[in-house]
Design a protein that fits this description.
Specifically dimethylates two adjacent adenosines (A1518 and A1519) in the loop of a conserved hairpin near the 3'-end of 16S rRNA in the 30S particle. May play a critical role in biogenesis of 30S subunits. It contains 13 helices and nine strands. It is of the alpha/beta class. Strands 4-3-2-5-6-9-7 form a seven-stranded mixed beta sheet, sandwiched between helices. Strands 1-8 form a two-stranded antiparallel sheet. The chain binds S-adenosylmethionine (SAM).
Length: about 290
C-alpha cells in the first residue's frame, strides 16, 4: 500500500469510509513522511517503550510509532475513523486502538499493568482545540510519564517556554516549568497538513521531572494561586488574588509583605519561586 502521508491515499480512504474532515475534532492530517519521522525521533522512543498516542487520525504516525516502540495504545474520539484504523493498522500487532475522548479516558486503566513495567512516553499531533487541557492534565497527573512530544500551535509552544515579563508568560508557563524540562524541537509549516491549519505549528518535548522543580508545601494551593494571579492579566497581584481566591485581603497583604513582594505588581513579573513562596506563607492560613 502507498504511504498514508500521500494526500491521494488519505482522500481515497476517507471516500471509501464516507468520512469528511471534522473541524469539531481538530482534524488536520500530516502529509509529510519526513515530519512524521522527525516527530517520532524527537520522542526518542526505545524498543522497550510503551507509547500513548492521542488522536491517530488514519494511523499515519501510529504506523511509525509501532515500528519503534514495544507497544502503542492510541486513543481516537471519532468513531468513524475506527474502521479506517482497523484497516491501516492491521499489520501493526503491537498497536491497541481505543475509541474515546482522551479528556474522559482513564489512561491508567487502558494501559493496564504495562505502565508499571515499561518506560512510558506520550506522542501526538494534538487536536488544537484542546491542547492546553491535555497538556495540563498529563502534567498534573500522577502517571509515571517520562516524556511527552507534541505537535501543537506555535503560540502554545511559546507559552510553555514563556519567561517572566514576556507576553507569552502565564499560568501555563509556570505550571509546565514546575513539572517539566521543556524543549522546542522544530517548526512545522502549515502546508504539510490536510486541511491546512490557520495557525503556525511547532513540535515540543516535555521531560517530566522526578520531583517538581520548586519546593512547595501545598501543591494544590500553589497551582490555585498561580491560576488566580493570571485570570485577569491586567489586574495587580493583590486584586487578582483577592478576586480569585477565598483569602481575605488583609491576609494576602500580610503574606505579600512577609515575602517582600509589592502588592501592586502584576503576576506576570513573578517567577515560579515567588509563587511558591507566597503559597508556602499562605499555607498556614488554610484550615
Ligand atoms: N495523528 C493524525 C495525523 O498526524 O495525521 C491526526 C492528527 S489530528 C491533528 C487530531 C486527531 O485527534 C484527529 O484524528 C481527531 O479526530 C482526534 N481527536 C480530537 N479530539 C480528540 C479527543 N478529545 N480525544 C481523542 N482524540 C481526539
Amino acid at each position: 500500500m502507498e504511504k498514508l502521508t500521500s494526500p491521494r491515499v488519505i482522500e481515497t480512504l476517507l471516500k471509501k469510509y464516507d468520512i469528511h474532515f471534522n473541524k469539531r475534532f481538530g482534524q488536520n492530517f500530516l502529509t509529510d513522511e519526513n515530519i512524521v519521522n522527525k516527530i517520532a525521533n524527537a520522542g526518542e522512543i526505545d524498543a522497550g517503550d510503551l507509547v500513548l498516542e492521542i488522536g491517530p487520525g488514519i494511523g499515519t504516525m501510529t504506523q511509525v510509532l509501532s515500528e519503534h516502540a514495544r507497544k502503542v495504545v492510541t486513543v481516537e474520539i471519532d468513531k468513524k475513523l475506527i474502521p479506517v484504523l482497523n484497516e491501516t493498522l492491521k499489520d501493526c500487532k503491537n498497536v491497541e486502538i481505543v475509541q474515546g475522548d482522551i479528556l474522559k479516558t482513564n489512561v491508567r486503566e487502558i494501559l493496564g499493568d504495562d505502565i508499571e513495567t515499561m518506560p512510558f512516553k506520550i506522542i501526538a499531533n494534538l487536536p488544537y482545540y484542546i491542547t492546553t487541557p491535555i497538556i495540563m492534565g498529563f502534567l498534573e497527573s500522577d502517571l509515571p510519564i517520562e516524556s511527552m512530544t507534541f505537535l501543537i500551535q506555535k503560540e502554545v509552544g511559546e507559552r510553555l517556554c514563556g519567561e517572566p515579563g514576556t507576553k507569552a508568560y502565564g499560568s501555563l508557563s509556570i505550571v509546565a516549568q514546575f513539572y517539566a524540562d521543556i524543549k522546542i524541537d522544530f517548526n512545522v509549516p502549515s502546508h504539510v497538513f490536510i486541511p491546512k491549519p490557520k495557525v503556525d505549528s511547532i513540535v515540543v518535548t516535555l521531560k517530566k521531572l522526578a520531583t517538581p522543580r520548586i519546593q512547595c508545601d501545598n501543591k494544590k494551593l500553589f497551582l490555585s494561586i498561580v491560576k488566580a494571579s493570571f485570570l485577569n492579566r491586567r489586574k495587580t497581584l493583590i486584586n487578582g488574588l483577592t478576586m480569585n481566591t477565598h483569602f481575605d485581603k488583609e491576609v494576602l497583604l500580610q503574606v505579600l509583605e512577609e515575602c517582600g513582594i509589592a502588592p501592586g505588581i502584576r503576576g506576570e513579573m513573578l517567577t515560579g519561586k515567588d509563587f511558591a513562596n507566597i503559597s508556602n506563607h499562605l499555607n498556614k492560613y488554610t484550615a
